[in-house]
Write a structure and sequence with these properties.
The structure is a single chain. By secondary structure, the chain is α/β, with parallel strands linked by helices. Strand 5, helix 7 and strand 6 form a beta-alpha-beta unit. It is built from 14 helices and twelve strands. Helix 4 packs parallel to helix 5. It folds into two domains: about 150 residues, Aspartate Aminotransferase, domain 1, CATH 3.90.1150; about 240 residues, Type I PLP-dependent aspartate aminotransferase-like (Major domain) (Aspartate Aminotransferase, domain 2), CATH 3.40.640.10. The two termini are about 40 Å apart. It is globular.
């Protein structure tokens, strides 16, 4: 199916997607709204919300091997690992581990690398990342273990400076931490181009990818990417607050995460401190099933279980095609406004919208981010975020404590997108 055909089909079925999100048009207090804050957490799909309660009702607390209730919980855990692996096109479910958050998962991963990263090594972080994929490496590998920390910079138009990054890699580079898409700017980082070049310069370098911001916007394929670790968050893919970490199993087997002595010292269990949150896992599974349902709505027929990775690719490719249309509307609309009054950071040319996710960081001359946020809410019930968004590109590269960010998801309509532009036009006037 061509992109125009896919876009036409998506627009046709968009009302069905929107009906799956009970809080889309009104918040819990009944206030009408346009939710442009998916970067801080997407809305929860209906079945993911119901699954929280249902799992708490019927699942046994702990897995086991003897009586039916504990066997059902054991099988359930593997079922959720399996669908999460298929979402990432991971080769096996054993590489999937669950954590209270992605930040916690990355801290735990950094701690597990004692012995692999030493003072003679260097590691690379970037100024375009979320700080959750910066601070653990700087603090644990850098300050604690004495490794040299190198920072890859950002270009003026909000892209990762790939040439600068590659210039920092040498045979002693033990780890590269980078993002799939900027949490602050929406810029997509071309990992499938970068990682092979890194491997040439440092074959043993481990690559850890934060895919949290991109996971709701487009396909993820850890095998094509050839990263070693990748993290996503459940609450940014229409589900619960939960961190999901994938790693190559042969590497995970070598790592030594913190665990209590009596916990199983094998992958994946050794990475999961304490009991798993069954209700959150059920909600994650339901959120991913929703994306498989999207695949059936936009493509020819419902996907089979054996075809789940391809179905996820179909769903996320359709979402990406639709969201590029939203980005076109936004970028063309912003170009028509006075650039002396409204500034959009990052990639702003509509022809390059495929290089960014629909996340827009904005400043309005003479207005603080808090004032812009309040105006958008008061004028049309538009919800955006202000703050640093835990983004190194703002906090470090641009030195800004706060900026407004409007971040879209596939349940936002073109009409709501134009409402946002109209409100910005009023504000700039």
């Amino acid at each position: 199916m061509s992109d125009p055909q896919l876009l036409s089909r998506f627009l046709e079925v968009l009302p069905r997607f929107r009906r799956r999100f009970p809080q889309l048009e009104k918040d819990v207090h009944g206030n009408k709204r346009i939710h442009l804050n998916s970067g801080a957490g997407t809305l929860t799909v209906d079945t993911a919300a119901r699954a929280l309660n249902e799992a708490a009702t019927w699942l046994n607390s702990l897995p086991g091997e003897v009586y039916p209730a504990e066997i059902a919980t054991k099988n359930f855990h593997w079922q959720i690992r399996g669908i999460a692996a298929d979402f990432l096109n991971a080769p096996q479910p054993e590489g999937i581990t669950f954590h209270s958050s992605t930040s916690q998962a990355l801290v735990n991963l950094a701690l597990s690398m004692r012995g692999l990263i030493r003072g003679r090594n260097n590691l690379i972080v970037t100024d375009i990342d979320h700080m959750a994929n910066v601070s653990p490496w700087e603090s644990i590998a850098g300050r604690w273990w004495g490794a040299e920390v190198r920072r890859a910079r950002v270009t003026e138009d909000g892209r990762l400076d790939t040439d600068h990054l590659l210039s920092l890699v040498d045979p002693k580079t033990a780890l590269l931490a980078l993002t799939l898409a900027s949490n602050g700017l929406g810029t997509i980082v071309p990992l499938e181009e970068i990682i092979p070049e890194v491997r040439k310069k440092s074959p043993s370098c481990l690559v850890c990818v934060d895919a949290v911001h991109h996971a709701l916007h487009g396909p993820i394929d850890v095998q094509a990417m050839d990263c070693d670790f990748l993290a996503v968050s459940g609450y940014k893919i229409f589900g619960p607050v939960l961190g999901v970490l994938w790693g190559k199993k042969d590497i995970l087997d070598r790592l030594a995460p913190f665990r209590v002595e009596t916990a199983r010292n094998e992958t994946p269990f050794k990475f999961e401190q304490g009991s798993l949150n069954n209700a959150a896992l059920a909600s994650l599974g339901a959120a991913l099933q929703y994306l498989l349902w999207v695949a059936g709505e936009v493509g020819p027929g419902a996907p089979s279980k054996d075809d789940r990775p391809a179905a996820f690719r179909r769903a996320m490719a359709a979402i990406s095609t639709y969201e590029r249309e939203l980005s076109r509307i936004i970028l063309e609309g912003l170009a028509a406004l006075d650039p002396e009054k409204i500034k959009c950071y990052g990639i702003v040319h509509p022809a390059e919208r495929s290089r960014r996710d629909p996340t827009f960081a904005l400043e309005v001359t003479g207005r603080s981010p808090a004032e812009v946020k309040k105006f958008l809410w008061k004028s049309r019930g538009i919800q955006v975020a202000d703050g640093n968004h835990y983004s190194a590109v703002f906090y470090r590269h641009l030195g800004k404590d706060s900026i407004c960010r409007a971040s879209f998801a596939h349940y936002i309509s073109p009409e709501e997108t134009r409402e946002f532009l109209a409100s910005l036009a009023e504000l700039s006037a």
